[in-house]
Design brief:
Elements lengths: L1 H27 L6 E10 L6 E6 L9 H9 L7 E4 L10 H8 L7 E3 L3 H4 L8 H9 L18 H10 L3 E2 L3 E7 L2 E7 L23 E5 L5 H9 L4 E4 L28 E7 L2 E7 L18 E9 L2
Parallel strand pairs: 1-12, 2-3, 3-4, 4-5, 7-8, 8-9, 9-11
Antiparallel strand pairs: 2-12, 6-7, 10-11
């Protein structure tokens, strides 16, 4: 009997040890292995000077995350021309002061922002397998699900007020602008499509013709939002939300995007085409996680320094 069951037990023990080691790595190391990606996008009108844009997203701040705070503060040393915050700043109702402390040095620069669902609502414990099941069912996160009920409400108003006081432009289903020394920029933003707060009809009509360049900004890159921006002629769209897949398979990539975007475009620079129009799309993998699933695997936390250059 021992000979019969000895090998399976050893295999089981080996798999358990491997899984435990992977969990320790994903939670203890990679989830705190913050890094900066640099991307160049040839999207500006000919003759326009380069713009350096720092995109931060999906911070999911939890009280006590000192390493994350210090890293975010250090990004001010990049001296970007402006900052784009694509939402999901919180994962703890008590973490607003620490979030604002982390972003304080960045708020010295011009900036724009949109909110995500985790700015409005507190996190909840979820079965990670839910995302795989929803994708198989074609439901994609909350797209098609019932509206949010019974959720903890975050103190998001304090974040909004601090961002506004710093001069950052609120793009919640509206348009805004930044006047920089080298260009007048316009922005069109949406509230979070993941919880059906987007209202594209309020901002439809295409880029601001009086600006040197216009950018579309949204938290979750649902196809309906990308289609609308692209069909209206926006050449660049910035988004977050996906966490880059968060738990990825080495040499394969992401299994889910938590929206109806395909996994090939779960993070980084890609394009989006509608009819005869094409936009650049940049999706940030973000630098945090839901507090109840504080792990990342083959998908380190990030911010991105985008250098916008003139089209050839």
């Amino acid at each position: 009997m021992r000979a019969r069951y000895g090998i399976p037990l050893k295999i089981t023990a080996g798999l358990t040890a491997t899984a435990a080691a992977g969990l320790v790595y994903a939670a203890g190391f990679e989830a705190r292995s913050f890094r900066l990606r640099r991307v160049t996008i040839p999207v500006l009108p000919p003759g326009m000077r380069d713009l350096r844009v720092l995109q931060v997203s999906d911070i999911h701040m939890v009280s006590g995350q000192r390493k994350k705070r210090v890293w975010l503060q250090s990004l001010a040393g990049l001296r970007p021309d402006f900052v784009v915050n694509t939402g999901d700043n919180l994962s703890d109702t008590e973490a607003v002061p620490e979030l604002l402390d982390a972003l304080g040095p960045l708020m010295e620069f011009p900036g724009v922002y949109v909110f995500g669902s985790n700015d409005y609502y507190g996190p909840r414990m979820k079965n990670p397998a839910r995302y795989l099941m929803e994708r198989a069912q074609g439901r994609y996160g909350l797209n098609g699900n019932k509206p949010v009920v019974g959720a903890v409400h975050n103190p998001w108003e304090g974040i909004r007020d601090a961002f506004d006081a710093a001069g950052w432009v609120n793009l919640t289903n509206t348009r805004g602008s930044l006047k920089l020394p080298q260009a007048d920029l316009a922005f069109t933003g949406l509230d979070d499509p993941h919880i059906k707060r987007d209202r594209y009809e309020r901002v439809a009509g295409g880029p601001d013709a009086s600006a040197d360049f216009t950018v579309g900004v949204v938290h979750a890159p649902y196809l309906r939002s990308l289609d609308s921006f692209t069909a209206d002629g926006y050449e660049l769209i910035l988004a977050g939300h996906t966490h880059g897949g968060q738990l990825c398979v080495p040499f394969y990539g992401a299994l889910v995007t938590n929206c109806d975007l395909d996994t090939d475009r779960v993070k980084g620079l890609s394009t989006h085409t509608v009819a005869d129009r094409t936009s650049y799309l940049h999706v940030s993998a973000g630098c945090g996680t839901n507090r109840y699933t504080p792990v990342r695997f083959a998908c380190p936390p990030e911010a991105t320094l985008l250098t916008l250059t003139a089209r050839r």
